[in-house]
Amino acid sequence: MTPHRAVRHPLRRIVLLDDFGDAAPGAADWSGLPVEILREPLAGDALAARLADAEAVILIRERSAFPAALVERLPALRLVVTAGMRNRVLDIEACTARGIAVCGTDSLASPTVELTWGLILALARQIPWQESRLRRGEWQSGTGLGLEGATLGIAGLGRIGAGVAAIGRAFGLRLLAWSPNMTAAAAAAAEATLTDKAGLFRGADIVSLHLGLGPSTRGIVGAAELAAMRRGALLVNTARGPLVDRPALIAALESGHLGGAAIDTHEPEPMTAEDPIRRAPRTILTPHLGYVTAQNFRRYFEGAADCLRAWNAGAPLPRPLNDAARDPQGTTP
Q1: How many angstroms separate the CA atoms of 309 and 32, rounded?
Q2: What is the block-wise mean pLDDT of the chain (333 residues), using blocks of 10 residues?
Q3: Is 218 an active-site residue?
Q4: Where do the domains of the chain lie?
Q5: Annotated catalytic, 269?
Q6: What number of H helices and E strands is found in the chain?
Q7: Is 257 a catalytic residue?
Q8: Would you list the DSSP string of 282-297?
Q9: Which one of 61, 78, 210, 240 is the catalytic residue?
Q10: Which residues are 237's β-sheet partners?
Q11: What is the fold, at CATH topology level, of the domain defined by 110-285?
Q12: Closest by alpha carbon to 259, among 95, 127, 126?
């Protein structure tokens, strides 16, 4: 369809998807906005049916995929607000073709940095397993990894990776850095040693992943990279689950070569009950908690409410992500 200009009308039905933790009601002022909050994940026909007459949809990060096939089934849709400024499972081009405005919100990097360090410390000092032994009436067993003087390999030095590096320096870790597009200047700014991919996995006691997911990075950590790691080394992934070849990771854990893995992101999400990673040894699994803090959710939902009110007022939309959102009058197919 070719979109044409149209004066906006106030939104009559707004749906917020996937509020698993019931965070949205108290995180923003929704007064005067007809927002319906869905807590259980939906997909396919069930999701399309629930959104059939929705004029605006609010997405919490990448919890629900929003592909072109879904966009085409939603004739009333005028506005999509996604938490944060990037959403790889939202087809913005399909929205643009339909004249649907897409906006983002402000977000914090610090929650994911903090969770990354919680997972690093838990792995390095074997906290979950030692705590479990104590509860069974047993005492300490084995030794943990002290961080001072150890080597942390950071794959990706964006906002989150750079934040992880800063805390690593405070712990006295030696820092290695690599990504497909890493520059010497970026590594130097983080006080890290620039290396290649092989050098990162070969030289680190702990590898922490902070890469975006795309065709070139899916499965970028496979059997070869895991085999190159030092025996007993640790892997932390708070970026995207598919960066790591899951069968290769399980094999490295089961063989004892990999000392442990902490994983916050998965595919699909929510994780299925049958996912074999649940049974892999020496793993810490968290349900995509990296961004889940009260402070971050306030930014998401206050930003979404601001966008909805701007739409209803005919005002410029904050944080536009496509041309339809940059047009102060809006468009409609």
Answers
A1: 9
A2: 59 97 96 97 95 98 96 97 96 97 97 98 98 96 96 97 98 98 96 98 98 96 98 98 98 98 95 96 97 97 98 96 80 41
A3: no
A4: 4-108+292-332, 110-285
A5: yes
A6: 13, 14
A7: no
A8: SEEE-SS-TT--HHHH
A9: 240
A10: 209, 263
A11: Rossmann fold (3.40.50)
A12: 126
